[in-house]
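agent> Task received from the user: take the single chain below, predict its 3D structure, and emit structure tokens. No templates, no multimer pairing.
agent> Plan: (1) validate residues, (2) run structure prediction, (3) serialize to tokens, (4) report one or two observations.
agent> Step 1 OK, no nonstandard residues flagged.
tool_call: predict_structure(input=
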Amino acid sequence: MSTLNFVRYLFMPARPTVVLLVAVLTLGFLLALHGGLPGIVLALLLLIWLFNYAYVLLEQIANGAREPPVLAIEMLNPVNEQRPLLQLAIVLAVYGTLRLLAQFLSPVLAIALEILAGILLPASIGALGVGNSFLQAINPLALWQIMRSLHMAYASIVAVLLLYGLSLSLLASRALLPWWLLIPAAQFACLSVFSLIGGSLYERREALGHEAVDTPERRAARAQLQLDRERARFMDTIYGEARGGNLAAAWHTIERELALQNHAFEFYDWMFERLSRLDNPRLSARLAQDYLSRALTRDNARVTRLVQRCIAADASFRPRSGAETLRVAELARLAGDRSTAQALLVGFEQHFPGDSALAQALALAERLRRD
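)
tool_result: status=success, residues=371
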């Protein structure tokens, strides 16, 4: 993952949508601090809402979202969003197991296992965030696959998690920040980590086998599908006019579309391919002449390839004017294609009677015969 994308995912919760949510939750947490038993219930409810949103944020970013989601009523319902409770159950189960094992292990080994569990936590969150599978979130092989695929990005996630945790612990233990600043900072840290996990999963989606909903490849495929449909409708019009014998109307339609496409060479290539399928070659030949006129001096290799194809299909094909024919023949000669150059110059006087380039064409034809 690039540094730019890393920073973008890290600060995704700084967008206005999330800032507003954090502000509202902060007010609720401040009320809960002075609410006694009802305050504890309120704090638990607010934590559920926060982590519900965090998992939705992770999932949408992992699926290609470029903006954080807007809070919806469904996100607030613990019944609809059970991943935070599942993750809590995993954390409690792992912690309880480690505490139990600590009685039979050396202190060093017990601490090492706890550190390992902490390192695996982001992978477990990621697996649960995009898979909704409890088993995947506790499967060591699946967690290792995530860690291995994310590589340095995963190390960065763990480092950010440690940095946030140590910083917040220091600020809270020494009362360096008032609660009304510490609470939103803790929420931002939580959402930032979830955003970073989701972004890392998206960036490494191919290595993970994760099929994100919105990717450049899928957007390109959708755009290409729409383009193919539009072009198919356009060519239906051309085919209909050509089959009806109205070639003038067909060419007028082609010219109008070429102008709309800014006479892009890629569009010329596509249209020439389609027009070459018509029984009547006049439209494809006229398009090729127009194409050659625009490509000359701009893309000589393209000119050479196009004229080779046109001559192979119809030996009588010539560019629009004598000067262009001479220029294309020169390019073919320079490209080492003597046969195409000679074919273009055959019958030059008949194709372009009285053209000022006749003498040069005859001289080039003679030179090609001698070579």
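agent> Step 4: summary for the user.
The CA atoms of residues 167 and 186 lie 10 Å apart.
agent> Done.
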